[in-house]
Amino acid sequence: xxxxxRSVFVRTPCVNNPEVEAETIRRVGRVMDGLAxxxxxxxxxxxxxEPSVGSFTLASDSCFCAHCMAxxxxxLQSRYGDLHALNAEWETGFTAWEDxxxxxxxxxxxxxxxGHWNFAPWHDHRAFNxxxxxxxxxxxxxxxxxHDAEARSGxxxxxCPSVYGGYDxxxxxxxxxxx
Length: 179
Fold this sequence. Notes:
The structure is a single chain. By secondary structure, this protein is mainly alpha-helical. It has 6 helices and 2 strands; from the N terminus they run αβααααβα. A two-stranded parallel ribbon has the order 1-2. Helix 1 (18-34) packs parallel to helix 5 (120-147) and helix 2 packs across helix 5. It is elongated.
């Protein structure tokens, strides 16, 4: 990151990659099929212990892969409506949606050190990652329920709310039966 290389923030695998998301759901289905004979012993299903977007509560807990950037731009368009509104909020000068890139955490900190306190390009990326995480957790829950209509599922060892990483529990809790 010190060299401005954003490739260090590319998460592999990334659940915004449609192939990865589909394989994740298929894997959950295979696990649920394997549990069919002992389903009456199952009270709760745990999605994963201490899941995170990438690196728990580190400043690098985000993803800049092509899949995330493409989906984030669509999300930003629905949020801001047009590029002019985004540029006004972010204090940027993008000329095309394909060029829109959020700030890394270090870039946001560098902005602050320079006296520029607009963190919208960083915050929107964090908000998008929170939405992504809640979305895939919801998809996992739906697959579990597809195999066991009485299933209750959630995550254990969740990360603390934090400006870096962690979760937006207001998005995660609605898709959980328990945490």
